[in-house]
Amino acid sequence: MTMSSLLRCSRFTRTANAPILSRPLHSHINKTRELWTHTRCFQQWQCLRVDGQSGSAVMRLFGHARKALCLSAARGSKPSKVSLKFLIGPAALTVTARAFINVAYCQEDINNNVPVEVQATEKTPEFHWTVLWEFVRPQILALLGAVILAFGAALLNIQIPMILGELVNVVARQMREQAGSYVRDMRGPAFKLLTLYCIQGALTSGYIVLLSRVGERVAADMRKTLFASLLRQDVAFFDANKTGHLVNRLTADIQEFKSSFKLVISQGLRSSTQTVGCFVSLYMISPKLTGLTVVVLPCLVGAGAIIGSFLRQLSRKAQEQVSKATGVADEALGNVRTVRAFAMEDRELQLYSVEVDKSCEMNEALGSGIAVFQGLSNVVLNCIVLGTIFAGGSLMAGDEMSAGDLMSFLVASQTVQRSLASISILFGQMVRGCSAGARVFEYMSLEPSIPLTGGGRIPTESLIGRVDFMNINFCYPTRPGHHILKNLNLTLPSSKTVAIVGQSGGGKSTVAALLERFYDPASGVVMLDGLDIKTLDPSWLRGKVIGFINQEPVLFGTSVLENIRFGKPEASDAEVISAAKQANAHGFITGFPDGYNTVVGERGATLSGGQKQRIAIARALIKNPRILILDEATSALDAESESVVQEALDRATTGRTVLIIAHRLSTIQGADLICVMSNGHIVEAGSHLELLSKGGLYAELIRRQRSEGKK
Ligand SMILES: Nc1ncnc2c1ncn2[C@@H]1O[C@H](COP(=O)(O)OP(=O)(O)OP(=O)(O)O)[C@@H](O)[C@H]1O
């Protein structure tokens, strides 16, 4: 979009019930509008209601609008309309903005703390033919072949009623004249008809084979491209989108698109060719009867289409209800241990039953609707046949038509009916296919603000491993008004252990997330060996430099060997075993009947917490990271497992830069530096003894934990 078109479409309108704006405010908004058009963020603004706001309040309002849009962009949606209700002082102000989002604004500094209520209406994703073309292009020859074969089959279908008519004429002549050989007269048209049937069958199989090849390959390419795009997205994107919703796009949406694509090409082409062709045939057989058909048929097909669309709506709702019920079952079965632990089986069953009963009711209603529709269609179709015979018979009586012509007319008009009905169904299918395709394309074109790769790398031999957090301010993109880190300054000296402590929810893990570059700070820099990590290759940083072990290690449902090798795919078996030994895991792994080939179950469900944690440590150690982050690595374990894991961790931290995030202060007393976090920044730093002697917040935390321990 050019700057001039942006300026053209930028406008403010006052709605009927909006109070008259004061002059200074008007000019202020105009200035702001200029600002926005220049930042290329907005396509159109509509200021609906402004009650006695000061200029600066309006400026803040625009700031919030921008943040809301950034938030939506981080969630992966591009809203066309965002309604914001701001409560600034006593007055309320409502603005509706039509937005053209520039995703780059996700990283804007977010510093305002005005209470804000945001409702974002998600824009329906758009279907882009150019994107589809990119997927179809490699299959174009097969697709053209399919189109030609389908067209050929449709042309043959048009011939069939005429030849049937010829056959009936032979029979009628035989009955009338009783002369000549029946078999000889029938042979010609019968042979012709048989040949047509065979060719038509061959063409039909041909185009179905080609189309399913095209459809499957296009769908496979789409799946791979969408999955690659999803894997590339920012962590913030996954904060904002449910996994089930994303998986649905990869599975159900692509499936729906593929079915529609195949159906629209094969049936659409066939039905439209047949409709046109058979209409020509009808006209050639009997212009009078065709005139009658032209009046009656569209009315009936139109009525059928209306009822059909009602039934489709009903079917969509029933399907939604089925997936709702599936969602309940999915959640319960996926969290079966929690359900069992709370003895909630009956409640889950009840929830599921309610949803299943609703879906049953809807499907029953749908079934009744379909039954009525089918019954009516049968009556109507038979009436059409009756009407055609009636009208055709009177034409035959007047010698304007032969019996064969009437037969041809009947078959051709039935073909037209079927084709028109299938076109009306296909239209709905096409709409559904396009919206499924649009949902798939939406995430394909989404560019992450933090790329996966690209940027500099520090050679391993010169990597020191010093980390500096300088003046960091940060809010999570999903909660723009909630400031987690405020002017945080922290240094992790090379080969030293730094522990961060502080109240729960204070932002300790957020510091680790910024070092991993899961998010970028709103302002300030994170430096590795004096280089801004934004200039370094994120995949190198995460894959080679930093080892991350957190409270709830997630393992993949494969073998122990593969899980450890996840840290370094090229590692030999000997390296895996050595990492397992360092992590105190070799003993229990070799105790399993299948040793390193033991499959650990979904998310490592067949292992104990301590065993999972030690495999996670081995997975982190196998890449020999310069920096190790231990985020509450032992807090989920019992005392016995904790001591085994702690022993592994103590061994792992030697010679590395280590950042420990801990609740239990007893585990970090040996750290070189302990930093106490409060209110988003570091308020105290020093060794355990120094901090104790100061008698500040750390001493208070120690005192509290000791008294809790005693209780
Ligand atoms: N992905 C996220 N999106 C939005 N807010 C988040 C996200 N992760 C954490 N938060 C919020 O950020 C704040 C800091 O969370 P963080 O996990 O950094 O705290 P913490 O100090 O490590 O807490 P704890 O000691 O309980 O683990 C919390 O208020 C939390 O609700």
TrEMBL record:
Sorted UniProt keywords: ATP-binding, Ion channel, Ion transport, Membrane, Mitochondrion, Mitochondrion inner membrane, Nucleotide-binding, Potassium, Potassium transport, Transit peptide, Transmembrane, Transmembrane helix, Transport
Domain ABC transporter as annotated: residue spans: 467-704
GO terms of molecular function: ABC-type oligopeptide transporter activity; ATP binding; ATP hydrolysis activity
Span of domain ABC transmembrane type-1: 144-432
GO process terms (BP): monoatomic ion transmembrane transport; oligopeptide export from mitochondrion; potassium ion transport
Entry-linked SUPFAM superfamilies: ABC transporter transmembrane region, P-loop containing nucleoside triphosphate hydrolases
Protein family (similarity comment): Belongs to the ABC transporter superfamily. ABCB family. Multidrug resistance exporter (TC 3.A.1.201) subfamily.
PANTHER family assigned to the protein according to its UniProt record, in alphabetical order: ATP-DEPENDENT PERMEASE MDL1, MITOCHONDRIAL, MITOCHONDRIAL POTASSIUM CHANNEL ATP-BINDING SUBUNIT
Protein known as: Mitochondrial potassium channel ATP-binding subunit
